[in-house]
Specification:
Elements lengths: L6 E7 L2 E7 L3 E5 L6 E2 L10 E6 L2 E6 L7 E2 L2 E2 L2 E4 L4 E4 L2 E7 L7 H6 L6 H16 L3 H16 L3 E8 L2 E9 L14 H10 L3 E3 L12 H6 L3 E9 L2 E10 L8 H72 L14 H13 L6 E4 L6 H11 L7 E5 L5 H9 E2 L11 E2 L1 H4 L4 E5 L6 H13 L1 E2 L8 E2 L3 E6 L3 H6 L5 H7 L2 E4 L10 H15 L7 E2 L1 H9 L5 H15 L3 E2 L6 H4 L21 H19 L4 H8 L3 H10 L15
Parallel strand pairs: 3-4, 17-24, 17-25, 18-21, 21-24, 26-27
Antiparallel strand pairs: 1-2, 1-11, 3-5, 5-6, 6-9, 7-8, 7-10, 10-11, 12-13, 12-16, 14-15, 15-16, 19-20, 22-23
């Protein structure tokens, strides 16, 4: 095939570009496999059109297609074609182009017509050997550009890779092997794109006077003179271009330089494919090594889990033991840990309380688990499908607690931009748990009593009442009978709440449950990820926990176990415990006798009063009169502190920020 007798048809469909070369006089185009150029497009007829070569040009004829062939946007039956003309068949564009020159062999490149020398051949062989031996992709790209500059005598060289609009200038170098800054603005991207799409090299000895480039703004803006752009094929597919230029001289590139770079591009394409393959193999090797490391880690984890099986079997045994214990009661109290006599008495009492719908009053010290009892009453009772709503009466001031409980109508007070239902309505059909009920203000107690008597609530600022149906569970760590005598709690409300009383024992009265509680807390720490695997506790540490009196009850024990387990390395030892737990101050046991208040010339209420006054004044001094910090130090709400200050006529110093004199 000779360049004079052949021509090309460049087919573009979307981002796909294919180049076909023909040396026949008639080329039939259509969807049928019998056509010379098959176009897989549903809008193309089986025989759509034909391109005929005439003595002085080309002719495009329509073959009676359902969608006529279009030239310059207009359907035609017959029209003349010139190189560069594009016509459309269906949804596919086809361009007529001059045939690419036949690719020369290495011998033809250097020996044809006696224009090449042995020196050129030696240089090219050296370059080919270097390209084939380079496995690092980044260094290979740089070698290709440097070789192109050396072989062609160019001022600069650029290697552009990619397809469609996703192209990048991978390497930009000059003849001194220096990097060219901002290369995307130093080349004619139009020329590079045209060569990449057509697969046909383009060369000009003087771009300023070449009619083919006269309309390109980049040629004028960059003042380009000699330009040579070669397609770079990898496994037969154009994946970039090799672009060299010279801005200072004309007539730099001739046919010899073009053929040299065509051969270089062939070698570069093979070298690039090999380098990419090597990179993929190395990537797969790294993935394999990572997978092997992962297998080793899994084996180590599996070995660790085998070591944990004994602990898990022990847990299962304890669970079986607990199940047999739970069988003694009507309901399943697995959420509450305890097998001591005091807890068994509690469960038997709850067996009778849970099916009823009367109010329950839970009494006990702070940290004994009053909310757990409330949740058990809801979870196991007839209202389990209804909501469980909880509120701490000591956590909110009177006005805010009132709006939370009863709700309010829009405009009831400043900031009430919309109506809001209260907790009594939200808990309707379920259980409402009010903790620290002893801290509720007397005025609010009266309103709560009305709700319990009438079964309806009136939101703040509203004239309408809303029916409510809740089972009320209240809790307190205070002596309500004493509050009733002191006028701080309504007697009628007390009797309304104290229908079904529950007394929770402090932890010091059920020390037999401490080992089981500790195991529960350690399991929870493992489940929450706070510790690595299951922590164990040494016998010495457990003895310390059992011996301590736990004034903060179960909550204090939980915090102590959590802190110690985090500090420990799998086994909680005695030294991991707090100092006051390891070495508690000696104190008489509950059963030891001592002087009674009467023998000391006082009464129990007076002793309690003196203790509260002393501790409040000490906390006020330490906080410089700041009531919020004082309440926090005493473990009570700010509202409860204010009531005690008024009750005992203690001068706080004039406000939160006023220091108290010693």
């Amino acid at each position: 095939m000779s360049a004079a007798s052949a021509f090309q048809l460049i087919v573009r469909h979307g981002k796909d570009v294919e180049t076909h070369q023909f040396d026949r006089d008639v080329v039939v185009i259509g969807r049928s496999r019998e056509c010379d150029l098959v176009v897989a497009d549903r809008l193309v007829s089986r025989r759509h059109c034909r391109v005929e070569r005439l003595a002085d040009g080309f002719l495009l004829r329509d073959e009676g297609a359902q969608n006529p062939v279009k030239l310059s946007g207009r359907p035609i039956d017959e029209a003349e074609l010139r190189y560069g003309d594009r016509f459309v068949v269906g949804g596919t564009e086809i361009e007529l182009a001059a045939a690419a020159d036949d690719r020369p062999t290495l011998d033809e490149t250097f020996l044809a017509e006696g224009a090449q020398t042995a020196k050129d051949l030696s240089a090219f062989v050296e370059i080919a050997r270097a390209l084939n031996g380079e496995q690092d992709l980044s260094r290979l790209l740089t070698r290709i550009v440097d070789a192109a500059i050396d072989l062609s005598g160019a001022e600069r060289g650029f290697l552009i890779l990619g397809q469609g609009e996703e192209t990048t200038v991978e390497v930009a170098r000059n003849f001194a092997q220096e990097e060219v800054n901002s290369p995307e603005f130093k080349i004619s991207r139009t020329i590079a794109q045209r060569v990449r799409e057509s697969g046909v090299p383009e060369m000009t000895t003087n771009a300023q006077e070449d009619a083919r480039f006269r309309g390109l703004a980049s040629v004028n803006d960059l003042r380009l003179r000699a330009v040579l752009c070669i397609p770079l094929r990898i496994r037969g597919r154009v994946e970039g271009v090799l672009y060299v230029d010279n801005r200072l001289q004309n007539q730099v590139f001739e046919e010899r330089e073009k053929q040299l770079l065509l051969s270089l591009a062939d070698h570069a394409g093979i070298a690039l494919h090999n380098a990419r393959t090597m990179r993929e193999l190395r990537g797969k090797q790294a993935e394999l090594e990572t997978a092997l490391d992962r297998v080793a880690q899994l084996n180590a984890a599996l070995e660790g889990r085998v070591q944990e099986q004994k602990a898990k079997l022990d847990d299962m045994q304890r669970e079986l033991d607990a199940s047999s214990t739970r069988g003694r009661f009507r309901f399943d109290y697995r959420g509450i840990v305890g097998e001591s006599r005091r807890m068994s008495d509690l469960f038997r009492l709850l067996d009778k309380y849970i099916p009823a719908d009367d109010p329950v009053l839970v009494l006990g010290e702070s940290g004994t688990g009053k909310e757990l009892v409330a949740r058990a009453i809801h979870r196991l009772g007839p209202r389990k499908d209804g909501p469980f709503v909880s509120e701490n009466c000591a956590a909110l001031p009177e006005t805010l607690l009132e709006s939370e409980l009863f709700g309010y109508a829009k405009g009831a007070f400043t900031g009430a931009s919309q109506s809001r239902k209260g907790l009594l309505v939200a808990a309707s059909g379920g259980v409402l748990f009010l903790d620290e009920i002893g801290e509720m203000h007397v005025d609010l107690q009266k309103k709560l009593l009305r709700v319990l008597q009438e079964g309806e609530v009136r939101p703040l600022g509203s004239r309408e009442t809303v029916k409510v149906d809740v089972r009320l569970v209240t809790a307190t760590n205070r002596n309500l009978e004493e509050l009733v005598r002191d006028g701080e709690f309504r007697e009628d409300l007390y009797y309304r709440l104290n229908v079904l009383p529950v007394h929770l024992p402090p932890l010091r009265e059920r020390k037999d449950d401490i080992p089981q509680l500790v195991e529960r807390f350690l399991r929870e720490l493992e489940r929450d990820g706070a510790t690595r695997g299951r922590s164990r506790i040494s016998p010495e540490a457990l003895e310390c926990l059992i011996a301590y009196r736990w004034p903060g009850n179960v909550r204090e024990l939980q915090n102590e176990v959590r802190r110690a387990a985090i500090l420990a390395d799998g086994v909680v030892l005695r030294e991991h415990l707090s100092e006051h737990v390891r070495d508690p101050i000696a104190a008489p046991d509950d059963g030891e006798e001592g002087p009674t208040p009467a023998e000391r010339g006082t009464t129990l209420p007076d002793l309690v009063r003196d203790l509260e006054v002393r501790e409040i004044r000490k906390a006020l001094r330490q906080s410089n009169g700041n009531k919020s910090r004082t309440a926090e130090m005493l473990g009570v709400s700010r509202f409860a502190l204010q009531r005690k200050l008024e009750k005992y006529a203690i001068d706080s110093g004039g406000g939160d920020d006023t220091a108290v004199e010693a």
